[in-house]
Structures are given as structure tokens and as C-alpha cells.
Amino acid sequence: MTTHRIKADIPQDIHKVWKTLSEVLGYPAWRRDVEKTVTTDENQFTVYTKDGYSTVYTVIRSEPCRCWEADVENSHVKGRWTVVLTSKGSDETELDISAWATAKKLSTRPVGKSVFEKTYLQKELERFAADLKSAGELGEEE
């Protein structure tokens, strides 16, 4: 298991950031890698990439404008994402995103497995934060 954590400032009010984050059916509008999102129920949804790859999210904690946490699983990894939101005034929100993941299909060699997990988590979290920041910037133009 590998963990990774990043912080990002989003130039939007915390309520707008929360709305963008929590309305999962809207993910294709702002996540550059997402083709569609399908909900199973109020706590579970599947995100499909533009390549057709699917990841299932099971929301285990949702505190509006404070915290969003989900178990995440696809054919390569199983893990958990936690997003903590903090208001930095009326026009900025800080995200503290932490995640852990365990590779499923790699050999049991610890070095290769942990390198994959770290690279995967870092790439996914950085892309998610950048896309969410871009979504906020797009919202300013409307």
C-alpha cells in the first residue's frame, strides 16, 4: 500500500467547489479524462474514461463543504481518496487530497509495486486537482 497527499488552492468559493466535486454526473464537463459517469445509488458511481476504462467509487463520507471520502477500485488498484475542503475567504478554497492505493495485478515484488502505486496516485491526484481548478476558472467566465 502506498499513500500520497497534495494540497491545491482553487480560486472559487467553497460552496461552488463542493458543488462541482459532489455532483458526480457533471464530472465529464470538467475532468479531462472522463467520458461519462453512471450512478448505481446515492453512494456509488462508476467513472468511465475516454478509453472506456472504469473505476468504481463508493462514497463512505460526505460532509458538505468539509470532507468527501470514497473507496476507489478498478482492475489495477484498490484504495481510498479523502478530500478535505477549507475556505480561505469568499473566493478561494484549499483542497487537501490524500489517497492510498494497493496495486492488484503486479507481481508481489515490493519495489515494482510501490513505484507503480506512487506514480499512479501522484498522477491521478495532480490531474484531479488541476481539473477541479480549471472547472472553477471556467465557472468564473460564465
Strand-helix topology:
Layout: E1 2-10, H1 14-22, H2 27-30, E2 34-41, E3 44-49, E4 54-63, E5 67-73, E6 77-87, E7 93-103, H3 110-141
Antiparallel strand pairs: 1-7, 2-3, 3-4, 4-5, 5-6, 6-7
Structure characterization notes:
A hairpin with a 3-residue loop joins strand 5 and strand 6. Helices cover 32% and strands 44% of the residues. The relative contact order is 0.24. The protein is an alpha+beta fold and 142 residues long. The longest helix has 32 residues. It contains three helices and seven strands. The chain starts with a strand and ends with a helix.
Distance between the termini: 42 Å
As residue ranges, the low-confidence spans are: none
Cα-atom radius of gyration: 15 Å
Shape: globular
Q: Please provide the count of β strands.
A: 7
Give the SSE string.
EHHEEEEEEH
Give me some keywords for this one.
alpha+beta; globular; seven-stranded antiparallel beta sheet; 7 strands; 3 helices; 142 residues
